[in-house]
Amino acid sequence: MKRWLIRLAAIAAFTLQFGCTQAPPPALPDTRAADEKAIRDGEAQWAKDFAAKDVEKNVAHYADDASLLMPNMAIRNGKDAIRGMFKGMFADPNFALGFGPTKVEVSKGGDLAYSQGTYTMTTTNPKTKKPVTEKGKYLTVYRKQADGSWKAVEDMTNADAPATPAKLPLAQSRRRPKGR
Length: 180
Description:
Elements: H1 2-19, H2 32-51, H3 55-59, E1 62-69, E2 76-77, H4 79-91, E3 96-106, E4 112-124, E5 131-144, E6 150-159, E7 164-165, H5 170-173
Parallel strand pairs: 1-6
Antiparallel strand pairs: 1-2, 3-4, 4-5, 5-6, 5-7
């Protein structure tokens, strides 16, 4: 009788172990290629928004808790701080920014991504009041939002070298100063 109970207990344990094991959840579809395209398209629109100097459209590319890290400036945390910085930048009549990604990577989980690229920015030198151009690179970390859109959560730029005087158009550079 004891053997019979031991065998019955072993069969019951075996049945419980394998009978109660849940099947793994179905694999999520791999949307990385579509997500990469969405980020590239988003950055192309973002570059247009910078060209238009539209503060609100630019701020809309950021998540509420985003951080912006730029050379020689304090970290801007949150949309309000980023908005304030853009207002100042866009007030500069010489401000111009062009950028584009050279690389976009999306996580396997599909919730995080980053873009890496280059930029060229022209601003007014505060001392000389002349336009200067800075070339550099950037790294932007994105998080997928509940609505499926991608928003920047960390955005960092880094100049390749100090800004240099902007080149004047050929016609302006050949003009002689008055009195010569």
